[in-house]
């Protein structure tokens, strides 16, 4: 009998040790789990319910069904904000990929002092968006801004930039392109991962620089382009800080810089229409999910991995 108990004791001790390790792991993870449930899961689930109510910060909401969603589709400013956001995303995302890849290829050259050049192009991403907006308000000022002063020096009359409904969104795209350094770093990492054997084989076959770029570099860089495309879409559709800071939240001129998240923010914290804002948030979530799913579906046709 004693032998049987002795034979079982190692298993019991091992099981007890595993239980203690599991408990210790959960205790260490508990602050994060509580934070996840309290600050992410609960607000997420609550917003689904609130989107069907007229809830505000000042009073509890009454269930009104799909009224918020019906009102949104009849709201002119809602459609203006969608147009502005899609305009920005459709131009900024492709341009950020084109300029990002081109800049990464230049910064990938074996030139003395390249580390300094890489640092210079990355520095704008470290500037807070509020400071960046204030800086560009001065640069693009139509009377005494740096850009129009340079254009005037060569005999070109500069546009009104942020003071024009036609030029306001292109101005914002220009500002945003100034801060693509983070994406460039990711492209540089992708370029360094491409084996030099491909280029050596292409040189033996007499391939030109353009042929190597479009036959080797771009195809093998598509996994990184795919990642930055997804992140670019998500970021562009949530554009907020730059236009809000530049216009003091007004979206002027003539609502040309009223973006979707700005209008959502106004409804939530200026008009205290939390239910209405929750409905807007879920529509944005659905749009982002659909676009992301579309990109994932199309990736099978244009994303290539080494060794495939």
In short:
The protein is mainly alpha-helical and 308 residues long.
Report on this structure.
It is built from 13 helices and no strands. The model is unreliable at 1-6 (pLDDT under 50). Helix 10 (209-237) packs antiparallel against helix 13 (274-302). The chain has 308 residues and is mainly α.
Q: How far is it from the N-terminal to the C-terminal residue, by CA?
A: 62 Å
- Indicate the radius of gyration in whole angstroms: 27 Å
Strand-residue fraction? Answer: under 5%
**Average pLDDT figure:** 90
- Poorly predicted segments: 1-6
Number of helices: 13
Helix fraction, binned, reads over 70%
How many strands appear in the DSSP assignment? 0
What are the salient characteristics of this protein?
13 helices, disordered N terminus, 308 residues
SSE blueprint and pairings:
Elements: H1 2-50, H2 67-73, H3 76-107, H4 114-122, H5 129-139, H6 146-153, H7 168-177, H8 181-192, H9 196-204, H10 209-237, H11 241-247, H12 260-270, H13 274-302
Helix pairs in contact: 1-13, 3-7, 3-8, 3-10, 3-12, 5-11, 8-10, 10-13, 12-13
